[in-house]
Amino acid sequence: MSGAVSGRTNVRMGQIGFASGEQTLCTLLGSCVGLMLYSRPHRLVGLAHIVLPDSAGKQVPLGKFADTAIPELISQLNKRAGQEVRWVAKMAGGASMFQTAQTMNIGMRNVDRCRELLRQFGIPVVATHCGGQAGRRMTISARDGSVQIEIVGQATIELK
Amino acid sequence: MTEQEISQLQTLFQQGSKKAAEAMSVWCGRAFRIHLDALRCVPLEEATQVLHAGDDPLCFCSVAAEGVISGQMVLAFDDVSGLKLAALLTDRAAEQIVAWDELSTAAMLETANILCCAYLNALFEALDAPGSAAGLMPSPPRFSREYAESAVEFLVMGQALEFDQVLIACTRFMIEDSFLNCSLLFVPDSQTMAALPGLLSAFTES
């Protein structure tokens, strides 16, 4: 589902990635949303790189749409944990980077749809870094569920 | 898109490259050549890698086009290549410019303006189908430094709304005999993607 380089897995558009133990997940975001679900006791993390809010009946790729990616992410993580787990979510992305009428609101629509679906699944969102006009690099550690957000020309932000 | 449509678009872009190179030669005062590197439909997840910049930040001068052809045209370059071109355009020694100052940024914005308008005019003239009263209106260019993948991700979003594959045109530049690590990307939005087959049917190679 995603490409791994020495313990770090890059999760690209429409993909879902998983990490455990000392592994990390990384993704570069524009208007897409990086949605991370984490369980500290299991030291297990999953990340969906969500492109659009709704699938409108399309099923492939599952990670591309919020309404297909979130159930898939939960299901895959529960399988890996071997039981149903109380996940917590962190979210980043949803920027509006260049001027364009057609895609101006996609970023925030992605964010809003993710929040709505997470509420339906009863998953709390514990930290976010969304919106704005700049792209982000999101790096996630499975060890402690920490999330680093990097924006070109700015200091690194830790999502607690 | 069919292979024939892609081939027609390639011809259009080659015409656009010629006109853009002529305009740039006048602007730079030196021989400027533009090579159409690729015009292809790629799966969404591969589109973000077209600039081969990985995690590195690049500079972007972006122009949004509205009208018969709508979408984004973006001049992308690394700091070294951009500052080198800016030094040449502002008649300064390259070592004099170590960061993006107002003059260098303005020079690159004007470069993007000249290139994008030359391309868009060439496309518009060739695709000027009857009834295309919508015309063509490019926005003023905007400068930003971004992670390459983040920027391309946003650029292809206009197509991702409707399609699983995205069409990207990518060009490279040469000043006299030196390659510049600058690329011009054209990413039509979903509206133009849907209209292109009709617009291309009116196009005959000249």
From TrEMBL, chain A:
EC number: 3.5.1.44
Gene3D superfamilies recorded: 3.30.1330.200
GO-annotated biological processes: chemotaxis
Tagged with keyword Hydrolase: yes
GO molecular function: protein-glutamine glutaminase activity
Keywords: Chemotaxis, Hydrolase, Receptor
HAMAP family listed in its UniProt record: CheD
Role noted for this protein: Probably deamidates glutamine residues to glutamate on methyl-accepting chemotaxis receptors (MCPs), playing an important role in chemotaxis.
Family as reported in the entry's similarity comment: Belongs to the CheD family.
Protein's name in the database: Probable chemoreceptor glutamine deamidase CheD
Name of the gene encoding the protein in the UniProt record: cheD
Automatic annotation (TrEMBL), chain B:
Record-linked SUPFAM superfamilies: CheC-like (SSF103039)
EC category name: hydrolase
Keyword field contains Hydrolase: yes
Keywords attached to this entry: Chemotaxis, Hydrolase
A GO biological-process term: chemotaxis
EC number: 3.-.-.-
InterPro entries: CheC-like_sf (IPR028976)
Source taxon at top rank: Bacteria
MF term (GO), any: hydrolase activity
Name of the molecule in the record: CheY-P phosphatase CheC
Protein source organism: Stieleria bergensis
